[in-house]
Specification:
With 465 residues, the chain is an alpha+beta fold. It is 42% helix and 19% strand. The chain is built from 15 helices and 16 strands. The strands form four sheets. The chain has a nine-stranded mixed beta sheet. Strands 5-4-15 form a three-stranded antiparallel beta sheet, with no helix packed on it. Helix 7 packs across helix 9. It is elongated, with a radius of gyration of 29 Å.
């Protein structure tokens, strides 16, 4: 049964002030960053933040959209405590951008890119959204600038959704229009249906992992309903991150239920070709172009280049700083996307939140290149360095991890290993080649990784003969 999915992605835009007022967007005590405009007081007049509109045009162009030459804002009317004036200022009839696409191996069509204000933050006390004893409202978030990106229903599986969000996030990071570490900086509303059936909307999913869980659960739930002969009714659901299940919120509204009307307090805005050209001139290098440059200029393979760029812009920046002081760029890329990322993940860190410095990682790689430590020791060294932030050189010296070069010391370790593993020696002599690798492994273990594998092999064969 074919699955059909579309996304509405809401992005918190980087801006020092809110969308329609001068209230700051930084963290503060609840309801501290508010004014008559973002609280919706009668007579308060909104004024558009031009930087947010510039960012909107930039995002539209990065997503291959056509920018509308003229646009305006509308009032989306609904009654809910997160919007005190009972309407949200958004774009409906004419958004900033239309008819774009993002290539993830197949083209995901972008229906529209539009600007709107964020509602207030609701805090459900004593339960979830469906079971809370009461709700508190923080209007600091009310009026924060949001960019909404709406796709066509082009996704057929969860893997495509993950790839799309990962690439979209990379584009937004390179444009420097949003902070990936901000609270709820990227939220997803997902529309899911089985071919021929009604669609279900799952609201306000935060985090890529939760998006995958919510979509997977909803696909299974709908499939089971169809198998039982039950009808899927159009509705809005919520993803419960504690149970990994979706829960019904309300029957789905239709667009006409919102009673959109033209926002009379904001003017129509004309966007000239010169304005768009100036924005395009300011746009930085985008992820796809950066991947191509990594491959061409640094000789990095396609796989590693894409991981470096698409996983985290800061990781790609880190690679480029390392590449200035270390010339084997493919080896550098291997270590970053392999052992460094593994060490960061195991310590629940990112390159942004860690103390990892380019000079320190390069020092580890040069110690391997110069024969001071083995690759195996270097792997453990990366893990400890990420965890502690201590100088790699000092860790090596304190733990006595320098490579054993003395033939006499190597002979002693090999002699001990051979005498303790006579059966493996006999098996090797009988023609079992695999036991040689076992013996090499034992030498590495006894030496704490301080003997090179090829050196261990040479001395083992000499001892056996």
């Amino acid at each position: 049964m074919k699955t059909i999915m579309g996304l509405e992605v809401h992005i918190h835009m980087l801006s020092e002030s809110k969308l329609f007022c001068s209230c700051p967007t930084d963290e503060a005590e609840p309801n501290e960053n508010t004014c008559p405009i973002c609280l919706g007081f009668p007579g308060a007049k909104p004024k558009l933040n031009k930087r947010v509109l510039d960012s909107g045009i930039m995002i539209a162009k990065a997503l291959n959209c056509s920018v509308n030459p003229s646009m305006f804002f509308s009032r989306k009317v609904y009654f809910y405590p997160d919007m005190s004036k009972n309407y949200q200022i958004t774009q409906y009839e004419i958004p900033v951008g239309i008819q774009g696409h993002l290539d993830i191996g197949k083209k995901i069509r972008i229906r529209r890119v539009h600007i709107e204000e964020d509602p207030a933050k609701l805090m459900h006390i004593g339960g979830t959204i469906t079971s809370a004893q009461y709700v508190l409202v923080d209007y600091n978030r009310s009026g924060m600038p949001l960019m909404e990106i709406v796709t066509e229903p082009d996704f057929e599986n969860v893997k495509e959704v993950r790839e799309f969000l990962s690439k979209l996030q990379s584009i937004l990071e390179h444009l420097e229009v949003y902070d990936p570490n901000g609270e709820a900086s990227l939220r997803v509303d997902a529309n899911i249906s089985l071919e021929g059936g009604e669609r279900i909307e799952v609201k306000n999913i935060t985090g890529f992992a939760n998006v995958e869980k919510a979509l997977t659960y909803e696909i299974i739930r709908q499939t089971n309903l169809v198998k039982m002969g039950r009808k899927i009714e159009r509705e809005t659901r919520h993803f419960n991150a504690e149970t990994n299940m979706t829960e019904s919120l309300r029957k789905k509204e239709f667009e006409e239920d919102y009673g959109y009307i033209f926002e009379p307090d904001l003017p129509r805005i004309d966007i000239s070709h010169a304005w768009i050209a100036e924005i395009e001139k300011q746009m930085p290098e985008l992820p796809d172009a950066r991947v191509e440059r990594f491959m061409k200029n640094y000789g990095v393979r396609d796989r590693e280049a894409k991981i470096l760029v698409y996983v985290d812009k800061a990781l790609a920046d880190f690679f480029e700083r390392c590449a200035k002081i270390y010339k084997d760029r493919q080896n550098l890329a291997n270590w970053i996307v392999g052992d460094l990322m593994k060490a960061l993940n195991s310590n629940d860190m990112t390159i942004r939140t860690s103390k990892v410095a380019p000079e320190d990682l390069v020092e580890i790689l040069k110690m391997v290149d110069d024969g001071e430590i083995t690759g195996k020791v270097a792997k453990g060294l990366v893990l400890e360095y990420v965890k502690t932030g201590r100088s790699p050189r000092k860790i090596v010296e304190k733990k006595d991890l320098i490579l054993i070069e003395s033939d006499k010391e190597i002979e002693k370790i090999v002699s001990d290993v051979v005498s303790k593993n006579q059966k493996a020696v006999d098996d090797y002599k009988a023609g079992n080649e695999k036991t040689l690798q076992f013996l090499i492994g034992q030498v590495m273990k006894e030496s704490k990784g301080k003997v090179k594998p090829d050196k261990a092999k040479e001395f083992i064969l000499k001892k056996i003969k």
